[in-house]
Structure to design on (1230 residues):
């Protein structure tokens, strides 16, 4: 049987409802009698709460209740549970569902008002009187690590969340033997979530069944269920979490938040459904971001540009709490040394508390950080040794026949970091060809005649995708031949339903229209993990394939008996099983399903199991490694510092593509996210820890006019770790993008010796760097 | 992010409007709403009364007469952009308005609203300054006229009282052969400018500058006319050297530092953009001469 | 004391008479009073464009208009773009070109482009990018939206 749907540009089944206004995002859910919640949030980055007077707010007409920490009972009044406990966490400080006696970032929830409408709830916020003793906040990550720093949490000895070390090889030896040593220091800033739908929760408590139904705009409904079960000390069976249509996730919606505790808790308390919808200002203040990492790296290199060793340190701003374990810090180190065969490595990471919103992964998690750091190493070598940056990459890439390649590091799954497959050299050449890299020098020279400064930048990366443990899929056929697929993996726009349909339709040889998918509902599938880390396509793809194969095997076994045919001679086409030798002898999948799920009194055929269904939790046997090389071409305006993106080329390898339409959509969107990181997005805090730009006029997201045409070429190196050869595609666009842009800018401004020390890079900063270059040139 | 409650009024004539204003204690006029509504949604503003003037149709017109272009205060930005009258008489409006917000805001945003909001980097106040426009103000006691130089008092502070309403704005037109340019630098298309420069310029047959106006928006707290630079340019030949000097001079403008950029950078932009605007305006003036 | 106004308007071709709280934005009125939830709120400060609807044919931000300002107007929302079961050309093109992922910002793009393509039947790519510069999409990177708009324009010219 050939694949009809796998690999084809199948249009998404999800779209019709979404383009006609029939989506069901959390704020669209209407439950009779719903009350609306609003949070009073701390205006201070660090303060002690001396007193709260809520009496005036409680008396306001239309207000149902006002809750503060004092109203919470055991066990709900404990710190929010840690979904990712880890012995490396030195101080595991999580927020209380409502601030107990200390607030540690601007936006921390202090009180919750429930009212007839959101408007009234917001009216009443002004009537709560809170008296604070303001404490000195720590805002900057480099301040936080210093001995004299203010402490982010009262009673803590210092601001250190964790210190992580990774190393392999003979690092001292590498530095002693090296022909040359270089250094590079830089600050990376990655913005926040900024899904166009903010977070939101609607919770309903059924007092008869003593159970909750909770709709949440989350990437991880099962994580919310598990966390809530702990927080409430309830069996998971009493909590159903539904993430229906979710308007984007990008990482920060993967966590567990206090609003997901307070809203259901208040719904139970008041006996009414309660809805809380995050508004955009709350999103800026309270949804986890990624923000700053500061790197200091030393490089040992041969005269020919072979990198013998990299050592150094990184500081990661953790924000005020640690709601998501150490996933971000781990992913900031584990992807080293990227696609390069670096012989020795030694890195230390300090993760520090600050009085700013908590940090957790944003698209790519720490991988874009690690990739940028490695690419900075490459750029530094190329610049100092005056070798073409593409050539430095060629000289250091892992070879095609080195796979499986063990880097020497340990993945945060505890196993040796192993790259399964790839061909980084071929991929780079594809990107260079697509970008006409060889023709760039002529373009640059031509433009320079008109005093226009063009530059080109290359960036290469690997991505560990498809991490475990699993994402289960069930497949069931009913007597009408309709196929029901369910899975734990919620979607925030990645088209999971469509790819599930494609794989199951192919495997069972049924029309895709007969396949009905339900995802993102803990009531519909028993166990799930979550949509993070480019892991879902690989895992549900694998599980769907296994489950559908099992269903097919079951169906064919019974069909062979009924048709009195040789099992090996059977085929399925359009849901009909036939004997290849006798084409008029057929039985439909539906008829088989009826045999295996008859009505009362009938028997299941001997030797067969009930119901034409199967559930699989089969997963990839390890993280398949996707890879990419990007080339960006820019023009820099010396008069304004403006960077214009002229062209962007992507060569991408995510193994076998289930749906090229979806893969390319992920890549383009991912690249644009990375461009946003490099040029635009920055969350600015003043020295008091006050966020400065909590609106979309001043926090700059990429818009259509500033984005270049992004051209894509694919390479398919199937992963040997799963039967369909899949690798993840969700973040591979973002991971290398920042360096491609920054390196292109540096290339354009090579005459001025510009080296970018921080991104996002602002036009003003570029002007300063250009001026510095001019002055030092003049001085020489 | 929901507005606080208010009492809503929707007058349909100027007399009715000024009467309401005279009797209101804490009112805000709702014109296009593209700046007021966000501030109300964020509760930065919580007026007792909102007086919606979208039904005062007499405030919506574009007229050209006696060498002047006159706009009713409620004329939408989209209407200005789409007007042939405006395009013929003062084409700089078309160039500047492309930078104003986006199509969904220009359909509502008004010229009067922009002048009253008086964002330092906004384009329409900059053009009003460039032309030395005159604002007609009405209140229950009558009408008065304020020239643009007296209009912008301070950061986002127009010379208008709570009982006043801006009725119309008059722009004295330049000669048919004038050159113009509006150069703006913003981080993204449609964003508020970091700095923008508008220029009008007239040349004689020998390419001598006979009349010129330059305005810088976004650098200082109000749009700033570069009168000294203009004075120096009169009688000069319109060439690169002249413009480079003017641009250097423009970089001495008073400028502000905020959370995002420094005064130094705004001054640099004033220089770059002044130079570009003068070059572009001159090219256009020459084209007109050659037509 | 809640300030309310009686207003009348047409929404997606249907006549409505409603008493609306005066502080409700047009988006609040559509969503909370009429349960027309296709219009989405992305920022409520007039930048993201998700809430764009057509008011007398013109694209406007429904978070920056009051509900009462719909009085006497003809409003079209995402729910009113298709002709029965038949998708409009721009809707169909979005599906064909994968012009949406999560779909949350999509209603604002579709309403904006509906008006833009009506007024600009043969737009360039640059013009389309400018037309949607007031709409933010975090998922798609815009490229497929631009492709969809170009395709829809062509389909509309051919029709």
């Amino acid at each position: 049987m050939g694949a009809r749907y796998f690999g084809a540009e199948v249009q998404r089944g999800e779209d019709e409802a979404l383009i006609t206004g029939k989506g069901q995002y959390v704020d669209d859910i209407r439950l009779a009698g719903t009350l609306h919640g609003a949070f009073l949030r701390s205006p201070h980055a660090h303060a002690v709460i001396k007193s709260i007077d809520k009496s005036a707010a409680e008396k306001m007409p239309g207000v149902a209740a006002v809750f503060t920490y004092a109203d919470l009972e055991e066990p709900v009044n404990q710190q929010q549970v840690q979904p990712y406990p880890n012995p490396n966490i030195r101080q595991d400080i999580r927020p209380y569902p409502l601030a107990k006696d200390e607030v540690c970032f601007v936006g921390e929830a202090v009180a919750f008002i429930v009212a007839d409408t959101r408007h009234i709830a917001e009216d009443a916020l002004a009537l709560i009187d809170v008296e604070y003793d303001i404490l000195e906040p720590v805002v900057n990550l480099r301040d936080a690590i210093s001995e004299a720093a203010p402490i982010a949490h009262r009673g803590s000895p210092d601001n250190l969340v964790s210190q992580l070390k990774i190393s392999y090889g003979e690092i001292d030896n590498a530095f002693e033997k090296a022909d040359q040593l270089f250094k590079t220091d830089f600050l990376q800033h990655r913005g926040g979530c900024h899904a166009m739908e903010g977070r939101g929760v609607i919770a309903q408590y059924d007092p008869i069944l003593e159970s909750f139904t909770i709709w949440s705009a989350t990437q991880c409904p099962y994580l919310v269920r598990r966390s809530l079960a702990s927080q409430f000390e309830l069996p998971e069976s009493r909590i159903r979490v539904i993430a229906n249509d979710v308007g984007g996730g990008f990482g920060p919606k993967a966590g567990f938040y206090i609003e997901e505790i307070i809203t259901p808790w208040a719904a139970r308390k008041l006996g009414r459904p309660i809805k809380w919808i995050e508004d955009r200002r709350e999103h800026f203040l309270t949804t986890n971001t990624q923000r700053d990492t500061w790197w200091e790296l030393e490089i040992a290199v041969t005269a020919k540009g072979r990198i013998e060793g990299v050592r150094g340190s990184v500081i990661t701003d953790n924000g005020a709490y640690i709601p998501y374990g150490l996933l971000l810090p781990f992913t900031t180190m584990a992807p080293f040394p990227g696609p390069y065969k670096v012989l020795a490595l030694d890195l230390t990471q300090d993760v520090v508390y600050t009085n700013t919103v908590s940090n957790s992964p944003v698209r790519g998690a720490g991988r874009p950080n690690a990739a940028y750091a490695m690419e900075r190493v490459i750029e530094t070598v190329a610049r100092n040794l005056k070798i073409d940056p593409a050539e430095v990459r060629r000289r250091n890439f892992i070879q095609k026949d080195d796979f499986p390649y063990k880097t020497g590091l340990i993945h945060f799954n505890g196993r040796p970091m192993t790259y399964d497959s790839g061909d980084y050299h071929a991929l780079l050449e594809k990107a260079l060809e697509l970008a006409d890299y060889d023709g760039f020098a002529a373009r640059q020279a031509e433009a320079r005649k008109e005093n226009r400064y063009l530059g080109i930048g290359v960036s290469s990366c690997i991505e560990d995708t498809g991490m475990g443990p699993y994402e289960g899929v069930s497949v069931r056929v009913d007597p009408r031949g309709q196929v029901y697929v369910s899975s734990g993996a919620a979607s925030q726009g990645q088209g999971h339903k469509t790819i599930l349909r494609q794989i199951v339709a192919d495997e069972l040889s049924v029309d895709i229209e007969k396949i009905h998918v339900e995802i993102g509902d803990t009531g519909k599938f028993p166990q799930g993990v979550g949509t993070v880390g480019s892991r879902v396509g690989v895992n549900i793809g694998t599980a769907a394939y296994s489950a559908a194969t099992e269903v097919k095997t079951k169906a064919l076994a019974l069909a062979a008996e009924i048709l009195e045919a040789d099992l090996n001679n059977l085929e399925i086409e359009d849901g009909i099983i036939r004997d290849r030798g006798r084409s008029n002898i057929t039985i439909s999948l539906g008829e088989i399903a009826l045999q295996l799920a008859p009505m009362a009194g009938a028997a299941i055929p001997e030797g067969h199991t009930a119901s034409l269904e199967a559930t699989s939790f089969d997963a990839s046997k390890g993280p398949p490694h996707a890879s990419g090389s990007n080339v960006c071409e820019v023009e820099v305006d010396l008069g304004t510092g403006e960077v214009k993106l002229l062209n962007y080329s992507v060569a991408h390898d995510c193994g076998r593509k289930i749906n090229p339409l979806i893969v390319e959509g992920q890549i383009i969107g991912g690249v644009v996210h990375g461009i946003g990181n490099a040029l635009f997005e920055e969350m600015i805090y003043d020295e008091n820890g006050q966020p400065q730009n909590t609106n979309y006029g001043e926090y700059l997201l990429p818009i259509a006019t500033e984005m270049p045409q992004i051209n894509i070429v694919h390479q398919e190196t199937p992963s040997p770790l799963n039967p369909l050869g899949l690798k993840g595609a969700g973040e591979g666009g973002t991971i290398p993008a920042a360096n491609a842009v920054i390196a292109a800018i540096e290339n354009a401004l090579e005459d001025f010796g510009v080296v970018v020390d921080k991104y996002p890079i602002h036009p003003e900063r570029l002007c300063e760097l250009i001026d510095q270059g001019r002055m030092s040139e003049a001085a020489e | 992010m929901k507005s606080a409650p208010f009492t809503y009024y929707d007058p349909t004539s100027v007399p009715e409007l000024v009467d309401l204003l005279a009797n209101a204690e804490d009112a805000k006029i709702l014109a296009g709403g593209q700046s007021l509504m966000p501030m109300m949604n964020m509760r930065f503003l919580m007026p007792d009364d909102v007086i919606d003037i979208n039904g005062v149709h007499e405030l919506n017109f574009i007229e050209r007469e006696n060498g002047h272009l006159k706009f009713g205060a409620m004329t939408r930005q989209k209407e200005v952009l789409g007007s042939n009258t405006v395009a013929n008489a003062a084409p700089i409006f078309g160039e500047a308005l492309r930078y104003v917000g986006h199509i969904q805001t220009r359909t509502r945003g008004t010229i009067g609203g922009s002048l009253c909001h008086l964002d330092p980097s906004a384009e329409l106040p900059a053009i009003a300054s460039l032309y030395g426009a005159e604002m007609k103000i009405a209140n229950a006691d009558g009408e008065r006229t304020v020239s643009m130089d007296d209009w912008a008092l301070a950061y986002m502070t127009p010379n208008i009282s709570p009982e006043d309403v801006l009725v119309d704005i008059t722009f004295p037109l330049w000669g048919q052969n004038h050159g113009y340019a509006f150069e703006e630098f913003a981080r993204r298309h449609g964003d508020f400018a970091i700095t923008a420069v508008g220029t009008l310029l007239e040349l004689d047959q020998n390419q001598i500058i006979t009349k010129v106006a330059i305005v810088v928006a976004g650098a200082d707290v109000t749009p700033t006319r570069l009168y000294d630079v203009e004075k120096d340019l009169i009688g000069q030949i319109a060439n690169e050297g002249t413009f480079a000097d003017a641009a250097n001079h423009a970089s001495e403008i008073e400028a502000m530092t905020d959370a995002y950029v420094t005064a130094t950078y705004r001054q640099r932009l004033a220089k770059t953009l002044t130079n570009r605007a003068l070059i572009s305006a001159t090219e256009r003036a020459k084209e007109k001469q050659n037509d | 004391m809640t300030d309310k106004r009686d207003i009348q308007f047409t929404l997606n071709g249907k006549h409505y008479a409603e008493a609306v709280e005066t502080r409700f934005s047009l988006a609040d009125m559509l969503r909370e009073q009429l349960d027309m939830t296709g219009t989405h709120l992305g920022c409520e400060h007039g930048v993201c464009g998700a809430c764009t609807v057509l008011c007398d044919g013109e694209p406007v931000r429904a978070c920056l208009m009051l509900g009462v300002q719909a009085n006497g107007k003809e409003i079209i929302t995402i729910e009113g773009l298709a002709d029965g079961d038949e998708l409009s050309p721009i809707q169909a093109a979005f599906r064909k070109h994968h012009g949406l992922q999560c779909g949350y910002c999509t209603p604002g793009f579709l309403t904006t482009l509906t008006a833009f393509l009506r007024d600009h039947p043969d737009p360039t790519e640059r013009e389309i990018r400018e037309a949607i510069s007031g709409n933010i999409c975090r998922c798609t990177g815009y490229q497929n939206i631009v492709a969809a708009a170009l395709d829809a324009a062509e389909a509309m010219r051919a029709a």
Observations:
- Strands of chain C lie at 4-11, 14-21, 52-55, 58-61, 74-76.
- Helices of chain C lie at 26-33, 89-96, 106-119, 125-131, 143-158.
- Chain C touches chain A through 57 residues (CB under 8 Å).
- Chain C has a mean pLDDT of 97.
